[in-house]
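Internal tracking record. Fields below are filled automatically when a chain is submitted to the structure queue. Please do not edit lines marked as system-generated. If the sequence contains nonstandard residues, flag them in the REMARKS field before resubmitting.
Queue: standard
Priority: normal
Entity type: single polypeptide chain
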Amino acid sequence: MQFLQALVDGVLIGGVYGVISIGLSLVFGVMNIVNFAHAAFLMLGMFVAWFAWHYLGLDPLLGAFLSFAVIFVFGCGVQRTLIRPILKAPQVAQIFLTVGILIVLENAALLVFGADFRSVQTPYQTSAFDIGGIIVSKPYLYAFAMALLSGAAVWAFLERTPIGRAMRATSQDPMAATLMGIDTNLMHMTAFGIGVGLTAFGGAVILPYLTASPTVGAHYVVLMFTAVVLGGLGSVAGAVVGGVAVGIIQSLSTLVFPIQLQNLILFVVFILVLALRPEGIVKRRAA
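SYSTEM-GENERATED OUTPUT FOLLOWS
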């Protein structure tokens, strides 16, 4: 029973890891750039949801859609003004730029919002379902359900819509996509906006059981990169698989090791995957 409880907890947490990692993988898959500022957009999404809850009384699960919309627009602006000029620059320039954006956003948040931790209160915050002796926390379950919803929406967008197909074509061969009349610059901007918007969405849905602060992204940045590398960098499906794997490994490891060492097994598995299957669990197809 203890094993099943840890497994369920791991799947619920891992589903959210998957959603906040999809955006990172999508941006790399379409634009071939590793966005080290990605975690800062999760922080911004949490603050948008917090303000929506505080001033409008909007539940964070509903505020997540507002977070997505606000950060999508903001992300498009960042891509247009800062990212686009360095897309063909050496990789080291891309790294320095995205790390710089991370530092600027975190410090701007500290200046504007202060260093206080901000939490929300919801009717289901401390509630749980008892399913055959397995306790399923309602905030974790609802966050997982929202994660599934957003993941399915991204899949349908990429597979079933003309813009999604154009985005996949851009990720496979930008030159051929341009010759076919696809505006690759628009696809890059849209992919970046959706990527960071999804991360903001994930940040909002975890707000009922976490607190928002300017540095909250630091707790997730390593997990995001671990999830996308485990799943396969550039693969949207891989990001979901990698996120769930990270959650399960973290949760099950607490059955053997103290919680302070829950990431020990995770990084052992991470190193083994890099050594034995560097392309990740799921082979990249296209964004």
